[in-house]
What we know:
mainly alpha
Amino acid sequence: MSGREGGKKKPLKQPKKQSKDMDDDEMAFKQKQKEEQKQLEAMKAKASGKGPLSGGGIKKSGKK
């Protein structure tokens, strides 16, 4: 063992992955995911404007 062989060995470089052609099903699926993400963001923005939801839970008594 010489001094140059010490330490971690670097892995061989992998060839870059080719971007595969997407068929119609995959394109439709990606489009559907984007639409759902947009709807989710819109609902988050709408919900953040309101205060905390206090429908149920512990009710405080009127005693002073």
